[in-house]
């Protein structure tokens, strides 16, 4: 990096200007932005969530506002329109901001809303189509379940011969598992267990384990138009339910007990 021409101090020709801001692209820049945003938004009365540092909330009587920050993208949720406009006006005074109005597409997630029924449905159809094409599953057979019942997968099945190792080197096993995990984290908790099982063999996968990964993708292809539905009766209280199950020493490789759980908010599964 070179200092622009015209800024040389003839009394100190070997010195350079000190930047008062961070350079875009460096890790210090994102930290500086986050510190500045945190300072400004707290001055406006927002409090940072202790468990999720990118979530801020502000309550004034019956009016409640939530901020969700992802780098420099902000989602605002407010139950009082005039208060929402006041928050936007404050942000415009502090930062150069573009108002994209109602959220419809966030981090590869399409948001479908039915205001008359107070329902929200997050979906990742475009992302599903992309990964299905990437791993050549877009024209394959479909699967009705993410993982076969009583399927025995373990580390002893890993590629052992020279031919097997060479064959599996060309298989995008870890990449496919990572793509499935992205869907699991946002809209597809129904394949969480299958993804967890297959992720254990990334170091040395085998053909049976790769077949299991492809089966998950085939299931996603078959169900990509299905959605989680979040919402509820406005007259009913917000309700969170938890379901759990446990299997004793079901992890045969490490002789561990496996636990499964799911949280449901007003009928919609959540992380």
TrEMBL record:
InterPro entries on file: RVT_2 (IPR013103)
Taxonomic superkingdom: Eukaryota
Positions of the Reverse transcriptase Ty1/copia-type domain: 1-148
Protein name per its UniProtKB record: Retrotransposon protein, putative, Ty1-copia subclass
